[in-house]
Amino acid sequence: MSWPAAAVNRVIKAYDVRGLVGDELDESLATDLGAAFARLMRGENARQVVIGHDMRDSSPSLASAFATGVTSQGLDVVRIGLASTDQLYFASGFLDCPGAMFTASHNPAAYNGIKLCRAAAKPVGADTGLAAIRDNLVDGIGHDDRPPGGPGSIADEDLLVRYGEFLRSLVDTAGLRPLRVAVDAGNGMAGHTAPAVLGVIDSITLLPLYFELDGSFPNHEANPLDPTNLVDLQAYVRDTGADIGLAFDGDADRCFVVDERGEPVSPSTVTSLVALRELNRETGATVIHNVITSRAVPELVLERGGTPLRSRVGHSYIKALMADTGAIFGGEHSAHYYFRDFWGADSGMLAALYVLAALGEQDRPLSELTADYQRYESSGEINFTVSDASGCMEAVLKSFGSRIQSLDHLDGVTVDLGEGSWFNLRSSNTEPLLRLNVEGRSAGDVDAVVDKVSAAIAAHKVRDGAGL
Q: What residues does the Alpha-D-phosphohexomutase C-terminal domain cover (predicted)?
C-alpha cells in the first residue's frame, strides 16, 4: 500500500522515526517501514536485520510488525528482545548487520519510534536513507512481491551478557577500590542493562533506584537533562552514602553523573575526563566536542597532546566526524558520548564505566577528582520562546557591539567576548525557541551575559510585537 505524504512526514524525522502510537505510528505503518528499510538494506547486500525494543507497552507489537515487513522482503531477522539503544548498536556491530531499535527515548509513554542503523552501527538519517524510506512508503510497498529465495526467517538471540562483557573489555576495572554506585534508571532500560554491566564487577555495590521497567514512567520523566529529574537521585546519593550517582534516560544511551555530595557533574567535565583517559592510550588522537561543551575540553585535550575538533550539535554530525577523522572519542553537552572502539556509536554505559574506573583507581572523592577538569562557570541551556529567531539574534549581537572579539556560525552563532566569556545562541530545529549557553570565569560573569542577552531578546520581541 501507499501512504499519504503528510502522514509519513509526521513520523519520519531528521534522525529517526517517532510519533504518537495509534494516531501516527501503528503496526500497519511499522510493517511497511520494515519492508522499506529491508529494501534499502537489501540493495546494500545485507542479509539480516537485528531488532531490539525498550520497555514501552507498544514496543513488542511494533517491533514484531516491523519484523514481518523485513522478512517479506527476503531478509532474515534476529530479535534480541528488551535492549538499550547502545545494546542494539553492539548487536549491529557484533553481528555485522543493520539494526532497528524501537524506542522513543525520554518522550512520554504515548510515543514510540525507531532508531535505524546500518551494519557496524552506522547511522541512518534523512540524508543517508530515511528520505529513501519515506519516498518508498509514499510510492507504495508491495508485500506480494516475491523476493528471491522467498521470505526471510526470524530467530531469537540473547546478547545481553555478551554486550556487558564487551563493554567491560574496553575499560580496566580490575583492582578498583570498593564503590557504592547509585543508579537511577528512571524505569527505563538501564534497569535491564546496569545489573548485567555494572552489577557483576566485584568492587561495585549497585544501589538501584527505579529499576522496574515501566514505560509509563511513574516516578519521573526519563530525561536527566532536565534538572528536576535528577532530584530523586541526588537525595538517594546523600541518603545512602553512595560514592557516585548515575542517571540514564529511557533508552539508556545517555548517562548523567552526580558526585558524592549529590551535586551534578557537567557532561563537559565527563567529556574531559574520558577524553584524557583515551589520550593516555593513544597520544595525539582526535577528540570531538560540540560547540556547546566547555572551553575546558579543547584546552585540556591540547595540553595532553590531543587534537580537539569542534562539531555542530547532534549525533549525525558527531558520528560522521568520528568516521571521517578516526577520532578516538566524542562528547556532547547532552551527555551523549561516542567511542571509536564502539563502532563510533554512543554509549552512556561505556562512559559510566570510564568514570567509575577513574574514581576507583584513586582515593579522592568524585567532587575532588572532577575539580581537575573544571575551569569555568556555565549557565546551562536557557530557552527563549521567539517568533523571529534571526531578528532576535541580530538584536543580541548588536547589543554587545565592540565587546565581541570574534564570532562564528558553525551552529547558530558563537560569540567570544574575551577574558574567558563566550556564548552560543542557536535556533531549535523543531520548536520556536532560541537556545542560549553561556560560559565565563565566574558565576557573576555568566549572569551578566545571560542578563544582557535576555534583555536584548525581550526588547526585540516588544519592538517586533509593536510592528516596529
A: 381-454
